[in-house]
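FAQ

Q: What does a record look like?
A: Structure on top, sequence underneath. For example:
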């Protein structure tokens, strides 16, 4: 039982923190009294927006908005918002090209801050709160999966989703497991962020590994009595906690520190839905979440012809972005992409967010080629995506080597075992083989879409960006 909607009205919708134009989410900040901007900055669509003046003073409206976001109602709770804060700078850097620029000092700082900052509060996520008191846990196939995650807050209004370690690095998902009852792996979230960045998609929020002291950084800072009540000391004298559901409280689903320290992933929150609305849209290649059912795409090889007749897949970049997402999911082995999200500000051709990747990297010994159905059935791919994949297939830029080096930056390295890294190379060859088959059948002109020419910003956007 899980709410899939991400609309602002849905109780499962997360409400992160900070501002949001059709070229940059930050554009509405200018002139709103939230973050003052000096004149003469950010005059073109490619510029960074939201750069603060050298000196700023506290702004009542800014404080009111952020106090409401954090439910801080006491006047004593007024906190300064530093314009240089890494969370704020990450949010201001979101554009129609991706969640962050290719070279982003703000993201590098954000990753360090998520590793180092002290936790000041901990709570259940909004979808877990929606389930408390209202769910029938007999309908939840595995409480150890989706329900063990927490929202941690830090200074500067920082906010991240914490997913604890549920499975050891060298453990594979049993082959008899259905994808919808698989564990959620913290290291999969970390590795997915690094892979997304290597592929130059930049559609996964910054994610980092961290050792959390569950006593000092969760139990002692949470004000949620239900969360406090699920902590206990295990027979091995380790501090543990588990998911709370009114009909099922089982310690065998708990996660435990050693005795206090627990590995986990921290994923930076996106701007609040009130500030940067997002749509949650069913994936046309959604799987059947039942034991014996099949979706049309699984039995109809011409399914893409039907999809192409439906707006917005009939023109623009949406279908190409779906193929990008399928390639990403195939590389990580994620079969659980039932929905995708988009920022409404960037319109129908905006990029798709690659969220919730914790069910990836479960089986390195198996390549689930059905994940590639959008590519193999539609036979289209962006030229930029194909060029990047071809580069990562070259011996001097081998994908496994680039991933291995990138993951060494994380505190929890090694994040992936060697078999998972080598599986990336094998799956990359399968993707390129599928592309070659499409080109042999339909010709390169019809298969490879030229996306290297970026469209010029509409005149209305340019006015917003230069005022």
């Amino acid at each position: 039982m899980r709410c899939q909607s991400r609309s602002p009205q849905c109780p499962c919708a997360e409400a992160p923190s900070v501002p949001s134009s059709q070229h940059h989410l930050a554009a509405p900040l200018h002139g709103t009294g939230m973050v003052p901007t000096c004149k003469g900055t950010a005059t073109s669509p490619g510029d960074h927006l939201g750069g603060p003046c050298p000196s700023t003073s506290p702004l009542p409206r800014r404080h009111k908005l952020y106090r409401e976001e954090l439910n801080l109602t006491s006047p004593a709770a007024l906190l300064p918002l530093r314009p240089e804060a890494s969370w704020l700078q990450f949010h201001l850097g979101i554009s129609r090209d991706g969640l962050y620029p290719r070279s982003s000092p703000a993201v590098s700082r954000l990753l360090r801050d998520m590793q180092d900052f002290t936790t000041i509060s901990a709570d259940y996520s909004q979808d877990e709160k929606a389930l408390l008191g209202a769910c029938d846990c007999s309908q939840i196939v595995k409480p150890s999966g989706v329900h063990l995650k927490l929202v941690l807050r830090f200074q500067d209004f920082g906010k991240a989703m914490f997913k604890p370690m549920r499975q050891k690095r060298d453990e594979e998902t049993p082959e008899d497991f259905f994808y919808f009852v698989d564990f959620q792996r913290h290291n999969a979230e970390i590795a997915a962020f690094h892979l997304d960045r290597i592929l130059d998609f930049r559609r996964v929020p910054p994610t980092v590994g961290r050792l959390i002291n569950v006593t000092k950084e969760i139990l002692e800072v949470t004000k949620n009595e239900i969360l406090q009540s699920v902590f206990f000391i295990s027979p091995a004298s380790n501090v543990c906690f588990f998911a709370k559901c009114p009909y099922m409280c089982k310690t065998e689903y708990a996660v435990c520190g050693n005795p206090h320290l627990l590995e986990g992933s921290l994923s930076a929150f996106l701007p609040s839905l009130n500030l940067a609305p997002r749509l949650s849209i069913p994936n046309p290649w959604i799987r059947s979440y039942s034991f014996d059912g099949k979706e049309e795409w699984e039995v109809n090889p011409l399914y893409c012809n039907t999809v192409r007749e439906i707006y917005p897949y009939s023109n623009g970049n949406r279908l190409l972005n779906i193929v990008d997402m399928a390639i990403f999911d195939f590389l990580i082995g994620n079969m659980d992409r039932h929905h995708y999200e988009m920022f409404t500000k960037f319109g129908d051709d905006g990029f798709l967010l690659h969220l919730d990747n914790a069910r990836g990297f479960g089986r390195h010994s198996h390549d689930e080629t059905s994940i590639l159905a959008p590519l193999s059935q539609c036979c289209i791919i962006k030229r930029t995506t194909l060029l990047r994949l071809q580069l990562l297939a070259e011996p001097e830029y081998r994908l496994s080597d680039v991933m291995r080096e990138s993951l060494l930056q994380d505190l929890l390295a090694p994040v992936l075992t060697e078999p998972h890294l080598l599986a990336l190379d094998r799956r990359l060859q399968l993707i390129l083989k599928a592309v070659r088959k499409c080109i042999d059948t339909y010709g390169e002109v019809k298969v490879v879409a030229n996306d290297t020419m970026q469209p010029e910003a509409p005149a209305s956007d340019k006015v917003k960006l230069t005022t």
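Q: Is there anything notable about this one?
A: The longest strand covers residues 261-268.
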